């Protein structure tokens, strides 16, 4: 039963529910009525983008957002960068939450030092501060900030509030810095794909099941990559608000740019319950709207799903997984281990199959996707009066906010869960990124969370430790829990589908959240802990650049978790020097040492000293290309930097540190076949590195230790050309390759030329001061 169908050709949507194909338009001579250019302006996405457009036209967008949000892994670096660039106040609401390093459990005082810095910053610049354990970032934004027609930018990849009528985008920190300085989010108008929902989910089906069904259909083929997913169709009205939010937040895993949904009375009721009924507005497409493709989701055909290691798109139905037995599990394990550098490690998946079912060691319901009120209520209904057993299987539940926790406590659901043997924890994102509930070696955790990348469960394959995560809906996790860890679809369990009405109690926020927007106090001193460090000085791009390949990654996709691991490394996000030591540590352990060597060469070049290694490199370039330049002239005009090659880097998190760590270590460029996400490419640009792409043929000419010389790189960057002739050189041999950057705005070109966003703003401020 295939629940998801893709239509790759452009389609029209008439009156919000009738699908009209281009073929139909042509065959019935209705092209005047169904005008593609005109109808493209009738999507909800187009209208909201244009309402936030600050420039002329509708192709090159210059967006200003209504609010910003960050958590405690990202906000220190963002504010530090903004301060270095001239920040004096927060011009729009900026919400700082503390849901990632909430436990303050690793690295001594450094996590709590960040929290203290965050509070001092919102007092000084006029922001909003949500203390640890009070709410996870996206639930707080849903409850207090999202509204119909708004746009919100967050420094977390799962910034998604489309179900509430808000186009929300997750980006790296420098994009938030631009907004804090009154600048714009610059992007070419993205394409829009309709997500057409029909039918009604069956008993036992939850939002994660629907999300995984969509993910399976669209990720590998890039169907919605960097596009906007616009949710339409009659099926929307059959979904509760929590159900919509649960699907919406998982769209990040499709690599789409953002989402927007039709709104209705269900949306209005949610906003009204949360005291913000005035933020409701009816959103729906125009009478005839044009989309660049369509994903049809028949909700009544969706089954209980499971995403196996190591990606949310590695999706099966629970039924086919159990029926596939050890043979299927062996193949899944082989495919997963192929992504690891240590091929001797075992996930022990076939060994977990007995009595005709896969058995898991944990069940966890957590975070912005799992910890929603209705998910936990459904789980409580399933386990009520039953038990999870006294063996190894463990069951943990994390309500995503204190108001949700309060309501579950008031209506008795927490009691039902606890009596069954569940452990109730506070609002915390840890299990989503490898900082909580790490299973045993060889353990398998079933989680209603956002990701199951390698190490997202907290294991350390580099040290011979390996565990893994399967993504499931809270309902099937609860069904599995009452069967003592035997994988069970919620559709197989008889339980009460009725969910008690939700009552929002804002007292935890009223009594604890610091509400300082619009009340900046320049006399407030920023509180710096000893591990909060400023960014290093970064040089501008020279006429030429000499790159040395420090890592060559031939995997189909490279995640940001592999570029800079999550988990305990998150504690060092406020110290760029300490954090950079972890760069590629789980993928290419030799990378840091190689990059530091090249960084030392560049440092000596800046000091006017050409050390022996650099002399040899320059001489090799001179000889291979017959440049006829003196080493002194070549040194003055040629910056030297390390670089990473990867086929498709940047899938996953928005964390800017995946790029900034490369820069701190002396990185000057990446070369790829393509970039997995716009947000990672933007991070590379904002940190002043060249996001080169090349052909598969030319990529094979590269190897670790090679030099890549790009002459006239600065002039070509600032011109209208996008053809960079480069030379791969090693042992005196040279091969010519062609590199491209793709579309760059004039500002992005200037950022790279200046060396980084900080330099760009510092130079702009200096010029303004002179004026």
Spatial order of the strands forming the largest sheet: 31-30-28-26-32-33-34
Helix content: 25-40%
The proportion of strand residues reads 15-25%
Q: Which structural category fits the helices and strands?
A: alpha/beta
DSSP helical segment count: 29
| CATH architecture identity of the largest domain | Alpha-Beta Barrel
The CATH topology assignment of the largest domain is Aconitase, domain 4
- What is the domain tally? 4
Number of strands: 34
> Which ranges are low-confidence, i.e. pLDDT below 50, for 5 or more consecutive residues?
none
Label the overall shape.
Answer: globular
Radius of gyration using CA atoms only: 26 Å
> Which superfamily, in CATH terms, is the homologous superfamily of the largest domain?
Aconitase, domain 4
CATH class of the largest domain: Alpha Beta
What is the overall pLDDT average?
Answer: 93
Describe the largest sheet.
7 strands, mixed
Distance between the termini: 67 Å
Structural write-up:
Its EC number is 4.2.1.85. Its cofactor is [4Fe-4S] cluster. GO terms for molecular function: 4 iron, 4 sulfur cluster binding; aconitate hydratase activity; dimethylmaleate hydratase activity; metal ion binding. This is 2,3-dimethylmalate dehydratase large subunit. Belongs to the aconitase/IPM isomerase family. The structure is a single chain. By secondary structure, the protein is α/β, with parallel strands linked by helices. It has 4 domains: 4-58 and 191-301, Aconitase, Domain 2 (3-Layer(aba) Sandwich); 63-186, Aconitase, domain 3 (2-Layer Sandwich); 305-503, Aconitase, domain 3 (2-Layer Sandwich); 544-770, Aconitase, domain 4. It is 33% helix and 19% strand. The strands form 9 sheets. It has a 7-stranded mixed sheet with strand order 31-30-28-26-32-33-34. A hairpin with a 2-residue loop joins β18 (353-354) and β19 (357-358). The longest helix has 20 residues, at 318-337. The protein is globular.
